[in-house]
Description:
The structure is a homodimer.
Chain A: H1 2-5, H2 7-17, H3 21-24, E1 81-83, E2 102-104, E3 117-122, E4 128-131, H4 132-136, E5 141-148, H5 165-169, E6 172-181, H6 182-189, E7 197-202, E8 209-213, H7 214-219, E9 222-227, E10 230-231, E11 241-243, E12 256-262, E13 277-278, E14 284-285, E15 294-299, E16 310-319, E17 325-331, E18 339-340, E19 342-343, E20 353-361, E21 366-374, H8 383-390, E22 403-406, E23 412-415
Parallel strand pairs in A: 3-12
Antiparallel strand pairs in A: 1-2, 3-4, 5-6, 6-9, 7-8, 7-12, 9-10, 9-11, 13-14, 15-16, 16-20, 17-18, 17-21, 19-20, 21-22, 22-23
Amino acid sequence: MSSKKNPEAGRRRFLRGGAGLGGALVGASLTTGARAEPLTVAPWSKTPGEPVLWHPYGQPSPYEKNVVRRSRGATPIPGANSSMTPLQNLHGIITPTGLVFERHHAGIPQIDPEQHRLAVHGLVARPTIFTMEDLVRLPSVSRIHFLECSGNTGREWKGPGTASLQFSHGLLSCCEWTGVPLSVVLEEVGIKPEGAWILAEGADSASMTRSIPLSKALDDALLVYAQNGERLRPEHGYPLRLFLPGFEGNMSVKWLRRLKVGREPFMTREETSKYTDSMPDGTARQFTFLMETKSVITFPAPDHRLKEKGFYEISGLAWTGRGRIKRVDVSTDGGRSWSVAQLQEPVLDRALTRFRFPWRWDGAPTVLQSRAVDETGYVQPKATQLVEARGVESNYHFNAIQSWRVASDGVITNVQV
Amino acid sequence: MSSKKNPEAGRRRFLRGGAGLGGALVGASLTTGARAEPLTVAPWSKTPGEPVLWHPYGQPSPYEKNVVRRSRGATPIPGANSSMTPLQNLHGIITPTGLVFERHHAGIPQIDPEQHRLAVHGLVARPTIFTMEDLVRLPSVSRIHFLECSGNTGREWKGPGTASLQFSHGLLSCCEWTGVPLSVVLEEVGIKPEGAWILAEGADSASMTRSIPLSKALDDALLVYAQNGERLRPEHGYPLRLFLPGFEGNMSVKWLRRLKVGREPFMTREETSKYTDSMPDGTARQFTFLMETKSVITFPAPDHRLKEKGFYEISGLAWTGRGRIKRVDVSTDGGRSWSVAQLQEPVLDRALTRFRFPWRWDGAPTVLQSRAVDETGYVQPKATQLVEARGVESNYHFNAIQSWRVASDGVITNVQV
């Protein structure tokens, strides 16, 4: 508005606002904002609303009913499937627990916490069976960390996989996790000198099992009983799960019932025939625990459509299993030029980091990209670099730069450039 | 266990674990942990569980059905009431949105976001009516902040008010809030030089109205549309609320429909006959916006009972409208001696801070207290100091040290010492 009448005022606002707001109004419906008619009084302002404790446990607005987890489709076994987080509808870094993605191998067990036990045995001085009451009495810590399935964006290996952010990147969430450091429990039972690996087993009927290096168990592994302030949800491991910050999601074994200390990795199904990375020469990368540095633009994405040219704030998420995100670069011209995005504080260790970048769309077709750099200096690769190094046979650990093509009609598609 | 056989090992574990775990086992059920019988296989491990997307929007375990918001009781108008957050059941610093306390004056309006408007007028250059689409396109920020009703712990003025943490301190929550800085919108409309205060009006049928100093509006006030990652819930202001970090909760006007810039405070009902602090001389403190430094032990609390002597981790929350918490002291002997508690990182500006303190209960009656100190050096006062300064006629801004008495039978009560 005034930016058109008074460029100086516009520029001052640009400098102070830091996001080109003078320009923001060009072409946006804000230009019609200064209206003559009075503010109307809506019907909901004229009668009392729903009572307090309408929902003793709160629920989303009925107008948000389409913001839910979604699955790619049915599977032969309904409990052996996954559901994705609607990242295109979310803001900030915390994922609401009701929208945290799922991946189960035999469905969601309904566990009575008073009957649940954790057995710790094998190469230990004092084999112990813990009740939930035993565990919750021990010293706890709370940490905000991302959780990502190693299969997230797995369909991008062979080219653009899906025209939806929820289905391409939705096996990703970030929560505040509270639990007992695994090192505390291992200290209680006493690891024997020859102990080097730990088998973690879930109480689901798939007996989900993974081998955990003792070094990780003693470093920062948690026995988690709470998520975003409340006890775990059934689909996330209630009443107890393992949590391994920065490692692939399935290793954070849900419904944890058993920890066995041994000398060697246990070579379970989920680390041999599954969750290994097939290479072009027919071999497989095994024990690819770490989730590599990655980012994605969550607005605008294929799940959205730009109605008109003008100002938009590009927003997205960056994360790394290596620690903290140091920088995110954004390109609005298909990678020809890059600019540094603003990182939302606090930037936390192995948590999602929200980035923002002001953009004025001129209405011409273009490609939007983000590129994350972590504190170790690792730079998120291009898809061509990743495929050159690993081929296209893997279903896991795809962490390349994501490209969104914006067409002149505002339709956004998944491309690789 | 081994701490009894081997004091050195016990002490090493104490030093490494930092929480006296050798001692932790004395009297705890962990001492019976090393069992001879094998780990039994529970029924839920023998059959497939619930399918993926059992709940497209997730819900708590049925075993947690008692963890809900609660109200002190009915009121003449069901929509003019409050519900409290079950702090005694929560962990970490994030409050799950479904458990964030409520305070409404005329119930919860069911607002269609496409029909909702925000009018900004009064002493502005460009009166503007914003749609939600207009607002969400503007640059946003996300911040983790506490929200507390100024009436929280109001029943403690005249002595111990209730034998429940949920009912004494439950008008308190902490979430990640995402919205547009109010300064961005005020810049767009252009505040006239004589503008000094802003009237904020809600779209509920009580037309909740408060006067906001322009300095606060330009400093860190937010027009919030998302909470813990998802859009606001109806009871928290869907689709738009004001948020004033560190100020009393009712000023963060929900269902925000109007902002009017004026020269003086507007002297609305909620800042004259209500939400002012009655003093002994019959006068009232007005515009007591800031929520002062405060803390409370959330475990153990009157909502719990200690079954046996032995190790417990005392845990609680501290917060201040002045910025960051610098230190929390804990006393386990009714204030005769104080020790510094561990603060859970990250310690954020005007967010809840979780503190933890290892404690071994010898079974004797005692009193537990916490005392917060903020970065400005302000020390949370004793109840006697607060009453001496302000009398007992106020219902608001009680921020004294909370004392929990532990009886020999493990029953915990609310006392003032």
